[in-house]
Specification:
CATH superfamily of the largest domain: Thiamin diphosphate (ThDP)-binding fold, Pyr/PP domains
Order of helices and strands: EHEHEHEHHEHEHEEEEHEEHEHEHH
Distance between the termini: 45 Å
Helix content: 25-40%
Strand order of the largest sheet: 9-11-10-13-14
CATH architecture of the largest domain: 3-Layer(aba) Sandwich
Number of domains: 2
Strand content: 15-25%
Number of helices: 12
Mean pLDDT: 97
Low-confidence stretches: none
CATH topology of the largest domain: Rossmann fold
Structural class: alpha/beta
Largest sheet: 5 strands, mixed
Number of strands: 14
Length: 324
């Protein structure tokens, strides 16, 4: 097995599926000749040609509309939106059309496509380049929403998403694009959509996260006293999320902290905290805490690291919850 970064794992998944299924096409701004703004599609146009790795005009609504039409006609398009903030112009096409065609046509027409979107802060990008809008799309019936945190999961989840019969928004945490490597199988495998991963087992407290903050959680847990046994869950799929795995963990530990980069109000952290209250109330030994971004626009680079939940903030929340 090769040691790959998250970027390389996604590239490998795209190449693998394009070789396996000639219905798969990539399209987006600069995805062909330049290989994408983060070079995720680098080399794919040379290998598969400009008819399957398509450079588009700078028009997100057009990219999304074209991808929807291709999917309805039997293709498996993978449109790339360069940054999460650029999803705005494509929002109508994605939420009012891609997400609804299965219901609108009573199942006669589906839209099997994967919308790849770099997400999150921490790379000193300008405005509209560093947000975490996963809750918006998780709140849209008809869309599946995925956010891996590791190269292994990125490849397996992307292969599962491309083969899914419905539209999947595939958020890629750009802060960990090249931050580390891990072993990724060369061949075919899938990580099931909707299945969380228990990163580390524990008995005292449950920590739930997804995307780049999973690694901040790992750093935070490393700073706790040795006698603290913490269970860390990587959600991996934002919607439909694995409530059973989270609830089973909280029933065991009695305590929970949920960590995400998105603004606090109406975040997925809020949804998970509510689910825990509904399903685990009699098992709780302390209120569920949320460690999130703030209810403001992501600040420019001088302040963005104060916005993103870091290890000290997470460790403090864990300590407070344990002491309750």
């Amino acid at each position: 097995m090769a040691q790959l970064t998250l970027v390389q794992a996604i590239t490998a998944a795209l190449a693998h599926e394009m070789e396996r299924d000639d219905r798969v096409v990539c399209l987006g701004e600069d995805v062909g000749l330049n290989g994408g703004v983060f070079r995720v599609t680098e080399g794919l146009q040379k290998k598969f040609g400009p008819d399957r790795v398509i450079d588009t005009p700078l028009a997100e609504s057009g990219i999304m509309g074209t991808a929807i039409g291709l999917a309805m006609a039997g293709m498996r398009p993978i449109p790339e939106i360069q940054f999460e903030g650029f999803l705005g112009p494509a929002y109508d096409q994605l939420t009012n059309h891609a997400a609804r065609y299965r219901t609108r046509t009573r199942g006669a027409i589906t839209v099997p496509m994967v919308v790849r979107v770099p997400v999150g802060g921490g790379i000193h990008a300008p405005e509209l380049h560093s947000d975490s809008p996963e809750a918006i799309y998780a709140h849209t019936p008809g869309l599946k929403v995925v956010m891996p945190s590791t190269p292994f999961d990125a490849k397996g989840l992307l292969l599962a998403a491309i083969r899914d019969p419905d539209p999947v928004v595939f958020f890629e945490p750009k802060r960990v694009y090249r931050s580390f490597r891990e072993e990724v199988p060369d061949g075919d495998y899938e990580v099931p959509i909707g299945q969380a991963k228990v990163v580390s087992e524990g008995t005292d407290i449950t920590v739930v996260s997804w995307g780049a903050p999973v690694h901040d959680c790992l750093k935070a847990l490393d700073t706790l006293p040795e006698d603290v046994s913490a269970e860390l869950i990587d959600l991996r799929t934002i919607y439909p999320y694995d409530a059973d795995t989270v609830a089973a963990s909280v029933e065991k530990t009695g305590r929970c902290v949920v960590v995400c980069e998105a603004p606090r109000t109406a975040s997925m952290a809020s949804e998970i905290a509510t689910m825990i209250q509904e399903r685990c109330f009699l098992h709780l030994k302390a209120p569920v805490q949320r460690v999130t971004g703030f209810d403001t626009v992501m600040p420019y680079y001088k302040l963005e690291l104060q916005y993103i939940p870091d290890a000290p903030r997470i460790a403090e929340a864990v300590t407070q919850t344990l002491a309750y």
